[in-house]
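This part of the workshop introduces the protein records we will be handling. An example says more than a description, so a record of this kind follows:
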Amino acid sequence: MGEFSEVLTQILIPVAAVIGIGLIGDSELENGVQGLDVTIKCAEIQQAISVGATSFLFTEYRYLTIFMGVFGAIIFLFLGSVKGFSTKSEPCTYNEGNLCKPALANALFSTVAFLLGALTSVLSGFLGMKIATYANARTTLEARKGVGKAFVTAFRSGAVMGFLLAANGLLVLYISINLFKLYYGDDWEGLYESITGYGLGGSSMALFGRVGGGIYTKAADVGADLVGKVEHNIPEDDPRNPAVIADNVGDNVGDIAGMGSDLFGSYAESSCAALFVASISSFGLNHDYTAMSYPLIISSMGIVVCLITTLFATDMFEIKDVTQIEPTLKRQLLISTILMTAGIAIVSFFALPSEFTIYNFGGNKVVKNWHLFFCVAIGLWAGLVIGYITEYYTSSAYSPVQDVADSCRTGAATNVIFGLALGYKSVIIPIFAIAVAIYVSFSLAAMYGIAVAALGMLSTIATSLAIDAYGPISDNAGGIAEMAGMRHEIRERTDALDAAGNTTAAIGKGFAIGSAALVSLALFGAYVSRAGIKTVNVLTPKVFIGLIVGAMLPYWFSAMTMKSVGSAALKMVEEVRRQFNTIPGLIEGRAKPDYATCVKISTDASLREMIPPGALVLLTPLVAGTFFGVETLAGVLAGSLVSGVQVAISASNTGGAWDNAKKYIEAGATPHAVSLGPKGSDAHKAAVIGDTVGDPLKDTSGPSLNILIKLMAVESLVFAPFFAAHGGLIFKLL
């Protein structure tokens, strides 16, 4: 009961972060491979993928640097104008009777926090991409020794990325808080309000990373599949396909760098929401540093738990057969959840006082430490439920995907119908899980309970990201095996790794969407508190118009991203067809395709097309808050949250099911699958079309929607002082 001292807290958090970062040096990824010619060929392909991914990200980051500067200036000007750029201390909003730092200081430090969050997000995505591109060829070469060796290589690489991201986000946030404290001193209200900029920076970069990377990878993937597999009956990742390098580069910039930035954004926002609510509760008012740091201690415990969990996959159990891959990955989720539940109990007992008060929309709610244990634990277990349900609806081991595959017997139309139905149905149980988590956590500890429930779902982020990054690494490994001309047995092993990876990638997206719902609600509560709104009444016209417009935004956003992928894919298909028709000997394998042109098409399209969806998300809160006021903006946030979560889950699961239905037919591992195959059959072509339709759903629109709902909420929280002071211009004129 509050047994941790401040000194111990100050030591534990950075030590846990350093342990996580230190794992990047544990690169026992390759134990020497034989066959010099194959090794050189794999290294050449890996180098081409790495150079392509690095080049794209550097080009993207040049654009984003301009955005960071412009948006940072907007934050400073908007927040600085709240009190007319005054440098005088102001009465505190919540800590009555005390003076807080001037609004100009909050504007400056919020801007600095925004830039720090943006840089950390960019760094997380870039380092994740580098780790993945170094690991893919090693995984291919290890596959010659057996599927177990290849699995360990791919999984350890994903784990290194997961630990690096979790530790990086924790350490930068911890250092930022302590540096800001040098100026703010006892003004914790101002300190933690300015820290919310960290979450805004993280999510802003994640949005562009997800949308830009998603358009890149899916333009190449659709082009490669439609022309290569459907029209010319050549295998996936065949070196004769002009789009094959762009496709493999896309896996790294979209699925790796994009997902890394996305989950970092969720972590940063849930931490910021919890810290802000705590700062205006008894933790902040009484300056109890250890209790205040409860969200950071939970994350520190998560790193330690995930480190232990990883050992179960790589050291304690050896994979000897392809059928053991998916159960091993699922076991990671279960083990980390069980161990983390015990970890949460220890932290809640020792870091929190036995009783305290939490700010609750103008009042205070008395809360006990075991209440917070249940809040974090229910978020954690809701994440496990969402993960397992996602796996059930997207894995070829279960009937939903097998039914989708079976529907391919009668063509692409029935495949599309079955896939859409599966996606809609897969929403039901995750939404109930999120609803139960919200009700229990809010009942026990108000909005702070929801914020720490989101943190609970993300507490095992290192494991979630490890099993998520494992998928694209395995996918790339299979592509390299095909391009290097390795024997069929190797390709079968990498295909088995990839099939499991598709399911784990879907699980990762499920985690990201589920946590986004809780994070957004916590940020919504913090925004309502900061904007001084007593109740959000949907019967008032101001709120309802915001609600209905907010519910429309995910569809508008999805339309933009889907059309962007379609337009880019159209150019890619035309280019691939042109090369097959005009380069003599290409289809026979006597000539090399022009990979660079396809890479350029994907790069140009993604950089151009990521701007309109990004502008929609970032400008909506500014326009709604400035012209229509804080109540209308509250309606917009609620509407986009309720609508966005449903669309995101169904889109991601539909796409994942179509992808695995195609792989189920290709693998031919059961009599039923054999009856639908082989590759090139009518049923297989129908499955490829379904997979192609699902590509932008599962890798562009679906995953980007969870960033939309988080980003609008955290942006509204950061700009809340400005909206409360100067917002609602139209209603003031009426």
